[in-house]
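Exercise: predict the fold of this chain.
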Amino acid sequence: MTNAFVVPEEPTAADAIAAIGDELAVFDDWMERYQFIIELGRKLPPFPDAWADDAHRVPGCQSKVWMEGALTDGRLFLAGVSDAAIVSGLIALLLRVYSGRTPEEIVATDPVFLKDLGLLEALSTNRGNGIAAMARKIRQLAALQRAA
């Protein structure tokens, strides 16, 4: 498996969501949270240039976003990148929650946590639609693996 894929820090998606919520709560305002999210994006593993093509592009995003998934030992590992710094940070948040989980856990983890954490309200409508499209793409990849 290439090292472009994100390996989860927390044992479950729910634990990752709780940890992200705790980390975001440290900051007093959204500008500080944005900086934190941008930093997360900068720490993403390098995304192979060969995957930055139409086959890996996520539709519905204002920025260019590419994602890839690979099933290993019953877990779906994910990689992603964007040409926009804040969007790469949002990808990092999604991958922290979803990457390295079983397809069943991914499908069962509703992206409503994005709203619960206040991320959707804090983003422009286009960015909000984009992160929803990324979460949909991840869950579609998981559903396809489950069906296979």
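Check your answer against the key: The chain has a mean pLDDT of 92.
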